[in-house]
């Protein structure tokens, strides 16, 4: 089996647009007033080509941090599931999740499976220990009275 390293994913459009880029720069002009730049997500680390106005809008919403569309939706979903959670807490939790994923699953899927199984076993043990145990007061074998 041929082992391949991690590769960065890029869309066909971004590769075509790079042909119009200003040499020596990671940004290029789409219209007369819109410059497109490559930005990296603070959570997952994936890069996207975005206009400066869009980058500013996203960074304004996330307190100066740029977040890709997928991570943005994940953060919004965390807030939807826990309405009392603050945006920065949801962002921090998702960023931690992404970092854990990048450090385990991407680098070593077998180790990630081991961690997942360990977490499942730990939760199962906690559930068994926390449930109240009822003492048996009578035998479960029915008596026959004649």
UniProtKB/TrEMBL annotation:
InterPro entries tied to this protein: DUF1677_pln
Protein name as it appears in the record: DUF1677 family protein
Pfam family, one: DUF1677
Polar residues biased stretches: 131-140
Region (Disordered): 126-146
Origin species: Rubroshorea leprosula
Source organism superkingdom: Eukaryota
